[in-house]
């Protein structure tokens, strides 16, 4: 017979699982235009036999007899094929065939030259019988602008039009300030508050001057105006006011301009207004799916602890010995203030030191992970001081005060740790299987502007994630040993209420540092409106000045990860009485699912 608590735990798992299935079907419906577009993964062979993978959106009416105009999208630096799902589905709704490949370092393609990979994909797409060869266009975002220009130069006979999104600086770097004369249509879209353009070219006026000269325009370039570009081709320049460099994927104005440029070059088979968009509900549902996954792993772990094998993990929740009053307030303030102050300098130096590391293979990720190591070391120092104080007083710090064991335990229980890792592996394995299945059958994943990126992971990225998992484990255990006990507020006797309060407190505090920095940096940049940012970061790209280009640009997803993972650890701590079940599962989840897809991005 199941106990009442066990029945409740089972109902929670079933409810969140059912909700996840329903939301996933809804997500597929929005992205596939309710089945009128087939979304699937393609794999081709590039140079030297290397694998190039990606996502294709093919309308059901595409055929050899009726080829359709086509768009190939090249993603940015720390992105992947799914990063531009919003653009892909909006173009596919209008009848375009869309290909969005994973480029080197992102998603499932092998590491190789991004430019050569782009050219290989363009050649592959150009040979497909259902692709209209006279209306093949390419779109590049950020670093993908360089891939776009190279691919067009490699296969000019295939390209009808080029659109570079948020990349005047990349165009300048790629062409080395030489005049640009592509024998095709050209659309350029710029974010007004783009820190990369600001650092490499200047404010919007400086960008206008550069574009006017580079493209040989007869006047200072005007927004939304079409210019004769020779040989029957046109040039158009658009300015996006509501986006930063990082937010092009979820900017309605950006998507509208992309659609208008492509339709200017190749007439859309299906007539829809350029403002008729579904990206907003798609992103909302995708985020809801990602949050469901977080609830699933927490509820599933709790359910498994009713199994006799995993029940040995549990211990009575230790008596509340948390801080109170001013001490608690000071602790929370320091838990937010210290990480906030350290992030920019620590991450910048770590990025420099590990730029060529063969073990830690993602420079931007290294900056964030180095910061986590620094926070872990601070926690270690605090623990040493605490132990030294206890030694002088002639007392011992029990395992329960560190969330490592039950109250009164004097020996470390290794079986609890081992069983926690087995349980965590099972739960994370289920999630990985599910993510593989939904992409394999429906072509979708839970992708909310890289904040909640949950992708299936290939073997190479799985292996490269292991060193990062070790760092996450170190940061989580050193921080968690003090966090879970000292941040506990006075018990009210209402177990459900106390659980909710504890989870929210630890979620907010864990995410607060990056949330504050990101709000200051990019909220401030939008207010300034030129691309200039509030927080200068180290000159990593040789511009001769401190810039806004650093690990903070890639920290959005880790704000989400840190908050949600610490929330799960807190939940499972109160359910199990120790840190181990939450710690084991969350370090693997964060490493293999949130982090692994970016472990090869230099």
Description:
The chain has 602 residues and is of the alpha/beta class. It has helices spanning 4-31, 85-93, 114-126, 144-154, 168-175, 195-200, 204-214, 252-265, 279-304, 308-311, 325-353, 363-392, 414-442, 459-464, 466-486, 495-528, 556-576, 580-595, and strands spanning 37-45, 51-59, 68-74, 97-101, 131-141, 161-165, 185-193, 226-230, 233-244. A nine-stranded mixed beta sheet has the order 1-2-4-3-5-6-7-9-8, sandwiched between helices. Helix 4 links the parallel strand 5 and strand 6 (161-165). Helix 11 (325-353) packs across helix 16, helix 13 packs parallel to helix 18 (580-595) and helix 16 (495-528) runs antiparallel to helix 17 (556-576). It starts with a helix and ends in a 7-residue tail after the last helix. The mean pLDDT is 91.
The major pleated sheet works out as: 9 strands, mixed
Gross morphology is globular
Helix content: 40-55%
Strand order of the largest sheet: 1-2-4-3-5-6-7-9-8
**Tally of helical runs:** 18
Radius of gyration: 26 Å
- In total, the number of strands is 9
Residue windows where pLDDT falls under 50 for at least 5 positions: none
Strand content: 5-15%
Q: Residue-averaged pLDDT, rounded? A: 91
- Structural class, by secondary structure, is alpha/beta
N-to-C series of helices and strands? HEEEHEHEHEHEHHEEHHHHHHHHHHH
Distance between the termini: 54 Å
């Amino acid at each position: 017979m199941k106990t009442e608590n066990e029945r409740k735990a089972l109902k929670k798992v079933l409810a969140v699982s059912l909700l996840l299935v329903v939301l996933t079907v809804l997500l597929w419906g929005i992205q596939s235009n309710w089945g009128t577009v087939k979304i699937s993964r393609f794999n081709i062979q590039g140079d030297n036999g290397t694998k190039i993978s990606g996502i294709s959106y093919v309308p059901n009416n595409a055929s050899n007899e009726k080829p359709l105009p086509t768009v190939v999208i090249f993603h940015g630096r720390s992105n992947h094929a799914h990063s531009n799902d919003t653009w892909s589905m909006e173009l596919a709704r209008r009848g375009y065939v869309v290909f969005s490949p994973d480029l080197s370092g992102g998603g499932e393609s092998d590491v190789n030259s991004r430019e050569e990979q782009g050219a290989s994909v363009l050649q592959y797409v150009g040979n497909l019988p259902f692709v209209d060869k006279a209306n093949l266009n390419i779109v590049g975002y950020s670093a993908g602008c360089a891939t776009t220009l190279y691919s067009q130069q490699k296969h000019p006979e295939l390209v009808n039009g080029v659109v570079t999104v948020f990349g005047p600086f990349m165009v300048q770097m790629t062409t080395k300030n030489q005049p640009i004369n592509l024998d095709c249509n050209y659309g350029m879209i710029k974010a007004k508050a783009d820190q990369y353009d600001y650092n490499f070219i200047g404010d919007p006026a400086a960008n206008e001057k550069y574009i006017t000269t580079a493209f040989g325009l007869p006047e200072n370039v005007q927004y939304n105006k079409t210019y004769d570009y020779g040989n029957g081709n046109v040039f158009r320049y658009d300015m996006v006011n509501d986006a930063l460099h990082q937010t092009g994927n979820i900017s309605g104005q950006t998507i509208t301009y992309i659609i208008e440029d492509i339709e200017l070059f190749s007439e859309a088979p299906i007539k829809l207004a350029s403002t008729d968009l579904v990206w907003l509900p798609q992103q909302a549902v995708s985020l809801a799916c990602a949050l469901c996954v977080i609830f699933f792993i927490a509820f599933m772990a709790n359910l498994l602890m009713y199994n006799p094998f995993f029940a040995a993990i549990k211990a009575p929740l230790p008596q509340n010995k948390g801080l109170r009053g001013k001490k608690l307030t000071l602790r929370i303030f320091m838990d937010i203030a210290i990480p906030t102050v350290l992030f920019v300098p620590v991450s910048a130096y770590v990025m420099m030191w590990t730029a060529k590391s063969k073990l830690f293979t993602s420079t931007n990720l290294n900056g964030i992970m180095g910061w986590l190591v620094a926070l872990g070391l601070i926690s270690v120092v605090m623990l040493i001081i605490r132990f030294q104080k206890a030694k002088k007083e002639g007392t011992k710090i029990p395992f329960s005060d560190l969330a490592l064991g039950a109250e009164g335990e004097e020996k470390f229980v290794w079986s609890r740790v081992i069983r926690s890792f087995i349980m965590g592996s099972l739960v994370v394995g289920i999630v990985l299987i599910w993510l593989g299945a939904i992409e394999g059958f429906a072509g979708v994943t839970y992708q909310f502007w890289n904040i909640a990126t949950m992708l299936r992971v290939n073997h190479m990225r799985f292996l490269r994630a292991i060193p990062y998992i070790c760092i996450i484990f170190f940061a989580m255990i050193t921080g968690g040993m003090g966090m879970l006990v000292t941040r506990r507020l006075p018990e009210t006797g209402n177990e459900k209420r106390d659980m909710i309060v504890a989870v929210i407190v630890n979620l907010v505090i864990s995410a607060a540092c990056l949330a504050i920095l990101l709000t200051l940096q990019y909220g401030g940049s939008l207010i300034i409106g030129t691309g200039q940012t509030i927080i200068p970061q180290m000159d990593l790209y040789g511009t001769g000045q401190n810039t806004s280009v650093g690990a903070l640009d890639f920290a959005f997803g880790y704000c989400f990860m840190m908050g949600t993972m610490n929330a799960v650890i807190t939940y499972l701590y109160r359910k199990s009485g120790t840190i181990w079940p939450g710690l084991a599962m969350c370090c693997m989840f964060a490493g293999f699912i949130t982090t692994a897809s970016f472990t090869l991005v230099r």
